TrEMBL record:
<dbReference type="GO" id="GO:0016846">
    <property type="term" value="F:carbon-sulfur lyase activity"/>
</dbReference>
<comment type="pathway">
    <text>Amino-acid biosynthesis; L-methionine biosynthesis via de novo pathway; L-homocysteine from O-succinyl-L-homoserine: step 1/1.</text>
</comment>
<dbReference type="InterPro" id="IPR006234">
    <property type="entry name" value="O-succ-hSer_sulfhydrylase"/>
</dbReference>
<dbReference type="GO" id="GO:0071266">
    <property type="term" value="P:'de novo' L-methionine biosynthetic process"/>
</dbReference>
<comment type="similarity">
    <text>Belongs to the trans-sulfuration enzymes family. MetZ subfamily.</text>
</comment>
<dbReference type="GO" id="GO:0005737">
    <property type="term" value="C:cytoplasm"/>
</dbReference>
<dbReference type="GO" id="GO:0008483">
    <property type="term" value="F:transaminase activity"/>
</dbReference>
<dbReference type="GO" id="GO:0030170">
    <property type="term" value="F:pyridoxal phosphate binding"/>
</dbReference>
<keyword id="KW-0486">Methionine biosynthesis</keyword>
<keyword id="KW-0808">Transferase</keyword>
<keyword id="KW-0028">Amino-acid biosynthesis</keyword>
<protein>
    <recommendedName>
        <fullName>O-succinylhomoserine sulfhydrylase</fullName>
        <ecNumber>2.5.1.-</ecNumber>
    </recommendedName>
</protein>
<dbReference type="InterPro" id="IPR015422">
    <property type="entry name" value="PyrdxlP-dep_Trfase_small"/>
</dbReference>
<dbReference type="GO" id="GO:0071268">
    <property type="term" value="P:homocysteine biosynthetic process"/>
</dbReference>
<dbReference type="InterPro" id="IPR000277">
    <property type="entry name" value="Cys/Met-Metab_PyrdxlP-dep_enz"/>
</dbReference>
<dbReference type="GO" id="GO:0016765">
    <property type="term" value="F:transferase activity, transferring alkyl or aryl (other than methyl) groups"/>
</dbReference>
<dbReference type="InterPro" id="IPR015424">
    <property type="entry name" value="PyrdxlP-dep_Trfase"/>
</dbReference>
Length: 397
């Protein structure tokens, strides 16, 4: 299928709006949704050629689908990537990016501040296939080189990390990865390509949970792996046979979301900065963390590689675990829910929820302190968000 004309000189945000699958004879304006499991052929020869990879004809939606391709093409433009493969969730993207390149006897270097399920994959499942790992402190990239062994195949990081908002200089890591010929794989979920483009900084693979800021309204799950074609071909080969493909319905929803990604991230970031600034002097808090606050330990890195600080603000309540739960109970506007990256602001308390099964010592190791609160700043009026958090702090003493 021919793509609608797309000018490479357009800015990425224009391409994210204008890249579209070919207009059909109905002359629709918005891209159609191709909810079909498989595709037809005029004759046996056309079918033979499709299966022999001699044509670009679609075969089966587990492999590829025009609506899913539209989402991939928009994401490729946004990340500056040669190729991509879209998956059913962020975790299937992370898992596929591991399985495509790691085999028994290989070694993965990862930062310890990573998403909880990624930590579970690395520590509980990869060892079942004899794939070992070493963790490093994301804020100490100078310790990475000493961990690289002859069997190291990949370095995996999140920046900013979930939920601790630690950052790492991606150019520094890219130099280390190149020197040792290992793949640098970055989960760009928190920043999104609207604020940070890892491939331009020398990163090999970008993985995403599209469920968060990319969807932006808490509706559908999705994920994607992007990078050079030779790398994405390996991810495709794994996914084509194992089946974690993205649904065309979710791809259609997510493509519409990409049309507003830049304006949304601008507003999320502006409100988050305002909230962080307002909370910095609040007497109920031990500290406030936000990448674009000069008090952030890696403020210089944030300024260098991000266009804005993103929509997540973290703070530590005085009064620890119990205060954290009392604080959540006093919120009137913010939602208590497991998601983030929504138009509706969300508060979460990792120590009593996502990380409750870890011991306190284990939690501290991954940066989860007892009174840590993570705010996903939504698109409501920022004064209402600030007022709700301030009153909940006042009333949870
Ligand atoms: C949520 C999340 C994931 C997993 O994504 P799902 O879409 O929930 O599978 C991976 N990485 C980060 C940083 C996340 O926040």
């Amino acid at each position: 299928m021919k793509k609608r004309e797309n000018k490479p000189t357009w800015h990425a945000e224009t391409q994210a709006i204008r890249i579209q699958s070919e207009r059909t004879s109905h002359m629709e304006h918005s891209g159609p949704m191709y909810l079909t499991s498989s595709f037809c052929y005029d004759d046996a020869e056309a079918m033979r050629a499709a299966f022999a990879d001699e044509t670009d004809a679609f075969i089966y939606t587990r492999f590829s689908n025009p609506t899913v391709e539209e989402f991939i093409d928009r994401m490729r433009a946004l990340e500056g990537a040669e190729a991509g493969f879209a998956t059913a969730s962020g975790m299937s993207a992370v898992f596929a990016s591991f399985m495509a390149f790691l085999k028994t006897g290989d070694h993965l270097v990862s930062s310890s501040s990573i998403f909880g399920s990624t930590h579970t994959v690395i520590t509980k499942f990869l060892p079942k296939w004899g794939i070992e790992h070493s963790y490093f402190d994301l804020t100490k990239p100078e310790t990475v080189e000493a961990l690289i062994k002859p069997n190291t195949k990949m370095i995996f990081v999140e920046t900013p990390s979930n939920p601790g908002l630690d950052l790492v200089d991606l150019e520094v890591l890219a130099q280390i990865a190149k020197k040792h010929k290992v793949i640098l794989n970055v989960d760009n979920c928190f920043a999104t390509p609207a604020l940070q483009r890892p491939i331009e900084l020398g990163v090999d693979l970008v993985t995403h949970s599209a469920t968060k800021w990319i969807d932006g309204q808490g509706r559908v799950l999705g994920g994607i792996v992007l990078g050079r074609k030779e790398l994405v071909d390996e991810v495709y080969a794994f996914c084509r046979s194992t089946g974690p493909s993205m649904s065309p319905f979710n791809a259609w929803v997510l493509s519409r979301s990409l049309e507003t990604l830049h304006v949304r991230m601008e507003r999320h970031s502006a409100s988050a900065l305002k909230l962080a600034q307002a909370l910095e002097t609040n007497g109920h808090l031990e500290w406030v963390k936000y990448p674009f606050l000069p008090s952030h330990p890696q403020y210089a890195i944030a300024q260098k590689q991000m266009l804005a600080g993103g929509g997540i603000v973290c703070f530590e309540l005085k009064g620890g675990l119990e205060r954290g739960q009392r604080f959540l109970d006093k919120l009137e506007l913010l939602s208590l829910t497991a998601n983030l990256g929504d138009s509706r602001s969300i508060a979460s308390h990792p120590a009593s929820t996502t990380h409750a099964k870890l011991s306190e010592a284990e939690r501290v190791k991954v940066g989860i302190t007892p009174g840590l609160i993570r705010i996903s700043v939504g698109l409501e009026h920022v004064d209402d968000i600030i007022r709700d958090i301030t009153q909940a702090l006042e009333n949870s003493k």
